[in-house]
């Protein structure tokens, strides 16, 4: 009997990214067209720095304090190495994952990123469009430079989740939830680690904070409840006094006072769908999230932008996964730069992974086309998710497990590609 088995690809759609590597070679070899955005994760940030405004670059590239936690995020990835397997049937990889009852083409999500207009005029609406095209769920930030409704329109029938910066004013909170729900956002992501902005020297040294000038405040400025209350208090429309409107919106959302666990009841009552808490690092908080009855958590330290000196996010993932088991969906972010990083996070128990800075750099370099290149690269070229999964001997996301990863400490290991 012939040993050659014909394997049917499980899902033809998940191959749609696979052509990118050959597309790059063909463009260069036959048409002399080189990639606009570098495919080298270690050069991406530098290219973005050359292309972006200084303030825009500093905003995305910077972190809290001396950026020790940003470094820790990368070092935590470097500590884990994959152990590849051979002679397995891995020709056709299946990258699909199911999250909260919906199947997605890949285990990637677009991390919520605020004020995107400072990086490129394509901003949130452009990225939502690209995300829908590539089948990646888009997570819209409350600190957005496009409105909830504009982003919903750009995202079309693409999957979209809403990230809440949780206002102190419950009436405003309820209004945001209603708008997001009406606009087709399926999952509510509540960010817990940014109730105040951290000490960020790269922004402080040029005294740059776009939101006080009304940039990135579009969610508030377009909100009927916020607008009504502003008018009642100041006797003016938002547009007549942008300065005070911005201050008011900022102090409602980044008040300097954290909410508490019991207050989650309001969100549970008012949001008709899954709720995910973003910014969980301690296993005991992960257990509290289970107790609170939410559906998911994101093991994240905000990309090292909040508490400097905090542990690398990947360091905490195994303990968190062990603590909560299958009781809740565990997602991961902070420091993901390559397809291999995605595999490592999946192998350590994350169900899916959010990516932040890399596509923002692409956006800064060449608008939404640049962000698209970065995302396609992550999903397709060598050192990418699909190819690397194959080379590791893994056929699908479920195959990324603890058996394929080892903790190894090599003194002097690089922590580049922040
Ligand atoms: C420029 C920038 C803006 C961000 N804005 C938000 C935001 O509005 N809401 C939020 O929950 N997280 C925000 N984050 C954090 C990201 O969602 C994510 O946690 C982080 O970028 C992941 O780390 P990485 O950049 O190393 O991938 C922002 C991050 C950056 C770099
Ligand atoms: O910069 C950030 O990390 C962030 O979360 C944020 C906060 C306010 C406005 C825009 C982004």
Helix content: 40-55%
Number of helices: 17
> How far is it from the N-terminal to the C-terminal residue, by CA?
52 Å
- Would you give the CATH topology? TIM Barrel
Spans where pLDDT lies below 50 across 5 or more residues: 1-15
Bound molecules: flavin mononucleotide, benzoyl-formic acid
Mass-distribution shape? globular
Please, could you describe this protein's structure?
The protein is of the alpha/beta class. The chain has a single domain, classed as Alpha-Beta Barrel (TIM Barrel). 42% of the residues lie in helices and 11% in strands. It has helices at residues 20-31, 41-51, 54-61, 68-78, 123-134, 148-155, 170-182, 201-204, 218-221, 224-234, 242-253, 264-270, 283-292, 313-324, 339-347, 357-379, 385-391; strands at 80-82, 97-99, 102-104, 108-110, 138-140, 160-164, 188-191, 275-280, 296-299, 329-332, 352-355, 405-407. The strands form three sheets. An eight-stranded parallel β-sheet has the order 4-11-10-9-8-7-6-5. The protein is globular, with a radius of gyration of 21 Å. The N and C termini lie far apart (52 Å). Mean pLDDT is 93; it is low at 1-15. The protein binds flavin mononucleotide and benzoyl-formic acid. The site of benzoyl-formic acid (173) has 8 residues, from loops.
Entry summary:
The chain has 418 residues and is of the alpha/beta class. The chain is 42% helix and 11% strand. The chain has one domain: TIM Barrel (Alpha-Beta Barrel).
Helix and strand arrangement:
Elements: H1 20-31, H2 41-51, H3 54-61, H4 68-78, E1 80-82, E2 97-99, E3 102-104, E4 108-110, H5 123-134, E5 138-140, H6 148-155, E6 160-164, H7 170-182, E7 188-191, H8 201-204, H9 218-221, H10 224-234, H11 242-253, H12 264-270, E8 275-280, H13 283-292, E9 296-299, H14 313-324, E10 329-332, H15 339-347, E11 352-355, H16 357-379, H17 385-391, E12 405-407
Parallel strand pairs: 4-11, 5-6, 6-7, 7-8, 8-9, 9-10, 10-11
Antiparallel strand pairs: 1-12, 2-3
Helix pairs in contact: 2-16, 3-16, 5-6, 5-16, 13-14, 15-17
This protein binds flavin mononucleotide and benzoyl-formic acid.
The site of benzoyl-formic acid has 8 residues, from loops.
């Amino acid at each position: 009997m012939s040993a050659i088995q014909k394997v049917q690809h499980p899902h033809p759609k998940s191959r749609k990214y696979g052509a990118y590597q050959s597309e790059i070679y063909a463009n260069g070899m036959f048409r002399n067209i080189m990639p606009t955005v570098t495919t080298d994760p270690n050069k991406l940030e530098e290219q973005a720095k050359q292309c972006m405004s200084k303030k825009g670059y500093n905003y995305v590239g910077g972190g809290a304090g001396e950026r020790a936690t940003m470094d820790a995020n990368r070092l935590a990835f470097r500590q884990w190495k994959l152990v590849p397997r051979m002679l397995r049937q891995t020709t056709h990889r299946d990258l699909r994952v199911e999250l909260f009852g919906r199947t997605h083409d890949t285990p990637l999500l677009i991390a919520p990123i605020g004020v995107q207009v400072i990086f490129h005029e394509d901003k949130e609406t452009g990225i939502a469009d690209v995300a829908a095209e590539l089948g990646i769920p888009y997570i819209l930030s409350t600190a957005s430079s496009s409105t909830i409704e504009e982003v919903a329109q750009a995202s079309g029938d693409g999957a979209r989740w809403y990230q809440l910066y949780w206002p102190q004013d419950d009436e405003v909170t309820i209004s945001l939830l209603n708008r997001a729900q009406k606009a087709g956002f399926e999952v509510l992501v509540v960010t817990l680690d940014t109730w105040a902005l951290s000490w960020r020297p790269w922004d402080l040294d040029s005294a740059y904070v776009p939101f006080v000038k009304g940039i990135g405040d579009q969610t508030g400025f377009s909100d009927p409840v916020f607008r009504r209350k502003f008018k009642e208090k100041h006797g003016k429309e938002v547009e007549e006094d942008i300065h005070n409107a911005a201050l008011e919106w900022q102090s409602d959302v980044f008040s300097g006072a954290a909410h508490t666990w019991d207050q989650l009841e309001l969100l549970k009552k008012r949001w008709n769908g899954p709720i995910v808490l973003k910014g969980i690092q301690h296993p005991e908080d992960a257990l509290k999230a289970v107790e609170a009855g939410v559906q998911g958590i994101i093991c994240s330290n905000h990309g090292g932008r909040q508490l400097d000196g905090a542990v690398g996010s990947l360091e905490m993932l195994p303990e968190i996964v062990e603590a909560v088991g299958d009781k809740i969906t565990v997602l991961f972010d902070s420091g993901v730069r390559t397809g291999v990083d995605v595999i490592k996070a999946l192998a350590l128990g994350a169900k899916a992974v959010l990516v932040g800075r890399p596509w923002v750099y692409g956006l800064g370099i060449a608008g939404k086309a640049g962000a698209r290149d970065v995302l396609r690269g992550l999903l397709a070229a060598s050192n990418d998710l699909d190819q690397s999964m194959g080379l590791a001997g893994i056929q699908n996301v479920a195959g990324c497990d603890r058996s394929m990863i080892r903790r190894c400490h090599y003194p002097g290991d690089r922590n580049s590609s922040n």
